[in-house]
TrEMBL record, chain A:
Family recorded in the similarity comment: Belongs to the ETF beta-subunit/FixA family.
Top-rank taxon: Bacteria
Protein name: Electron transfer flavoprotein subunit beta
Keyword Protein biosynthesis part of the UniProt annotation: no
Domain Electron transfer flavoprotein alpha/beta-subunit N-terminal: 35-174
Species per Swiss-Prot/TrEMBL record: Marinobacter iranensis
Classification lineage: Bacteria, Pseudomonadati, Pseudomonadota, Gammaproteobacteria, Pseudomonadales
Alphabetically ordered keywords of this record: Electron transport, Transport
Automatic annotation (TrEMBL), chain B:
The protein, known as: Electron transfer flavoprotein subunit alpha/FixB family protein
Region (Disordered): 409-429
Pfam families: ETF, ETF_alpha
Lineage, broadest ranks: Bacteria, Pseudomonadati, Pseudomonadota, Gammaproteobacteria, Pseudomonadales
Keyword Cell cycle attributed: no
Length: 265, 429
């Protein structure tokens, strides 16, 4: 793997967008998991010079948890709960430019569509990389970014600065937040000119219904077929068994299967 | 011969008397039996057969499972035909519903099929006639679009000479925009998956200025229900034009065939991709979380040489797993434990070495595709679960496997496998 410990560089401007998360079971507000990982990545890239941006209410106590990770300041673009965050973020980033904007993949509360980074990237005209695990190197205005794929796989991408990236759960875990720094950090509050999200006002938010499990429906033509499907044991129990032969032959049979399945190259 | 029916009272008497020693001789195989008036008589006692416990069994399954040979001709004809599914044809569609399939590894996933099924539900709910366009970007390795519900198919493997392999969302977005201008689909459907569907759908939504319904799991022509953040809320909203559908949103198509008629796009807007794919990165298999590992080599109580086991896992590039006994004995760390009280794994290939297959362990590997067992005991439960089992000492077989894997790595390929093992491979695959 290429060298992945970049020293914090002061001249790279990293802005992390943070939201208010919620505990999946109790619903209590907290720092959002993916956002905290994004903050951690920002700290790795730019140290304490990386910025935090939040659109919403500064009175939310969970925001202090991000400051507790060791950052001196959090910019709050003060807005109501129904506000559309993207225009406020775009104007803020126009005024105070950044090279890398990090976000989580999806919010932990509300609609959680994960559209904010996409809309922001579209608005700013920057490339977007979803689900990154790490930013490995930056030189000559090009960044090499490690993208997380399913099944623990990784892919290396090269992208020019500035760009937007969403941080996957595969990124290094966020550090614990400490009480002292979370008290000492301060908020830089500015009033955001946002518009209310009217469309969402029409929608209804309900507690999540458990989704029905898909049943194994048997489409049979006759009653006898249905009866058979309901009572018969599934066929094909037990696979191939090799009892005789040398260890070598047995190992070769296993290897053949591994190669056929493509897990051994 | 005269057509006077001659009765044989003695035979009739024997036929009436089921306990007569000659009764079976007279009834069996005598073809159609005529009654005294010439009426065709059916003997209800002659059907069926005597089961192993001496009780008469009548198989009325019409030969679907080849019972005791009492198949009627009609039934045999029916099962042999396996009538082809009816072809669903759309000549002049009034509108299109576009489905962008993930095509992960060149195959249609169950999620893709569900989304195609959802597309047909949306078409049916409309008054006019619509066609489902499947958009497949990249190599197709094994995908039956006709039986999964594609009326039309747009398949591209390259755009402006740039191949659609690896990560190329910008090229794919250009294709989707071309589709949007040419066909103007009434709905855009994506699987909301980590295989690229969610990413591409969000990109298209941002580009077209459409607000997508994300994690939609209950969709009809008017209303959509979407799962909200942390899966704690449902959002009920009017159905959007762009839908990112959750898994199992609708039932896949299975009763019709579709044309999958190819469509050529006239013009794709030029693109200059900014994201460059440098290819996959070698990942240390021991760092992959057990729950998402693709290939697991698991050890149980039947392992003596642990150093050899670790070397084999490294050589094969497998993630290590363990049974509870191996963990309790201190041979493996706790986070490697597979099973009810450990991790539920989803590996495609799972090799169980010296694991007996206790139910607590089998629960944990319920989702594995191919299970290979190496065990001394040919009757243990793991063998019943496994797709391939080899009976023998774990040490010897692991040693040979290690040698084979190392030979592969060094490029000194051992002599080609014998015809015998090829045969096995075919049986196994
Ligand atoms: C509440 C509860 C929860 C549990 N949860 C889990 C769980 O999450 N995961 C789990 O794994 N277990 C769990 N168990 C334990 C489980 O019931 C079994 O005890 C355990 O899985 C057995 O492990 P094993 O197969 O490695 O050992 P054994 O049952 O001892 O099997 C060893 C196998 O190795 C074979 N063998 C021996 N020597 C050799 C050799 N030289 N070469 C090849 N094969 C050889 C034997 O034939 C035998 O089949 C749980 C039990 C309880 C009560």
């Amino acid at each position: 793997m290429p060298n992945s410990n970049v020293n914090p560089e002061r001249n790279i401007r990293v802005a992390t967008l943070v939201s208010v998360g919620q505990h999946p079971k109790s619903g209590r507000t907290r720092r959002a998991g993916q956002d905290a990982r994004a903050v951690e990545l920002g700290l790795k890239m730019a140290g304490t010079a990386s910025r935090l941006i939040h659109v919403g209410d500064m009175a939310e106590p969970a925001l202090r948890q991000y400051l507790g990770m060791g950052l001196p300041q959090l910019s709050v673009l003060q807005a109501g709960p129904d506000a559309d965050a993207v225009p406020a973020l775009a104007t803020h980033l126009d005024e105070q430019p950044a090279d890398i904007v990090l976000t989580g993949v999806r919010a932990e509360s509300g609609e959680a569509s994960g559209m904010v980074p996409y809309l922001l990237a579209e608005r700013l005209g920057w490339p977007l990389i979803p689900r990154i695990a790490d930013i490995q190197t930056i030189d000559n205005g090009m960044a090499e970014v490690l993208q997380a794929l399913p099944r623990g796989q990784r892919r290396l991408l090269r992208v020019p600065l500035p760009f937007v990236a969403t941080v996957d759960n595969a990124a290094p875990e966020a550090r614990q937040y400490a009480f002292g720094p979370s008290r000492r950090g301060n908020f830089a509050v500015s009033l955001a000119n946002t518009t209310a999200d009217d469309e969402r006002q029409q929608w209804q938010e309900l507690p999540a219904k458990p989704r029905p499990k898909r049943l194994n429906v048997v489409k049979a033509k006759s009653a006898a077929d249905r009866f058979k499907a309901a009572t018969a044991k599934p066929q094909g129990q037990g696979g191939k068994v090799i009892r005789d032969g040398t260890d070598r032959e047995k190992a070769e049979a296993i290897m053949a299967l591994l190669v056929a399945e493509g897990v051994v190259r | 011969m005269s057509d006077i029916i001659r009765r044989n009272p003695r035979n009739e008497w024997i036929l009436r008397n089921r306990l007569h020693p000659q009764h079976d001789e007279l009834t069996a195989g005598s073809g159609p039996v005529r009654g005294p008036t010439g009426l065709l008589r059916k003997n209800p006692h002659a059907v069926g057969f005597i089961g192993p416990n001496g009780i008469k069994r009548i198989d009325r399954s019409a030969g679907t499972q080849g019972g005791a040979g009492g198949l009627s001709l009609r039934a045999r004809g029916r099962s042999a035909e396996a009538a082809p599914l009816p072809l669903h044809r759309v000549e002049q569609p009034d509108f299109y519903v576009a489905v962008v399939v993930d095509l992960a590894a060149g195959r249609l996933s169950n999620h893709d099929r569900d989304v195609l099924g959802q597309a047909h539900q949306l078409v049916k709910a409309q008054a006019d006639q619509g066609a489902v366009v499947a958009i497949a970007l990249g190599e197709i390795r094994d995908a039956a679009f006709d039986t999964t519900g594609a009326d039309r198919l747009i398949h591209l493997t390259e755009v402006h000479g740039q191949p659609l392999t690896g990560y190329c969302p910008e090229l794919k977005l250009a294709v989707l925009r071309a589709v949007d201008t040419e066909l103007a689909p009434r709905y855009w459907l994506f699987p909301d998956s980590v295989h690229g569907g969610a990413d591409l759908g969000a990109r298209l939504g941002a580009r077209l200025g459409e607000r997508p319904a994300v994690q939609a799991w209950q969709v009809d022509a008017e209303q959509t229900v979407c799962r909200g953040g942390s899966h704690r809320t449902d959002w009920q909203r009017p159905t959007a034009r762009l839908l990112l559908l959750a898994e199992e949103c609708a039932l896949p198509i299975d009763e019709t065939r579709h044309e999958a008629r190819p469509i050529e796009l006239a013009a794709i807007p030029p693109v200059a991709p900014r994201i460059e794919d440098l290819g996959p990165v070698e990942v240390d298999p021991s760092k992959i979380a057990l729950g998402e590992a693709e290939f697991i080599l698991a050890a149980g109580n039947g392992i003596q040489d642990w150093g050899q086991f670790h070397r084999a896992a490294t050589a094969l590039g497998a993630t290590e797993g363990a049974s509870r006994v191996a963990v309790d004995d201190g041979n493996m760390p706790r986070f490697r434990q597979v099973g009810a009280t450990g991790t539920w794994v989803t590996a495609r290939v799972y090799i169980a070495v010296g694991i007996s297959g206790a139910i607590q362990h089998l629960q944990g590997i319920g989702q594995c595709d191919k299970v290979v067992a190496i065990n001394l005991d040919g009757g243990c439960d793991m063998i019943k679960r496994a797709d391939l089992s080899v009976i023998g000492d774990s040490q010897g077989i692991l040693g040979e496997l290690l040698a084979l894997a190392e030979a592969r790595q060094n490029g000194t390929e051992t002599p080609p496998v014998t015809a015998n093992t090829r045969e096995e491979e075919r049986n196994v695959a």
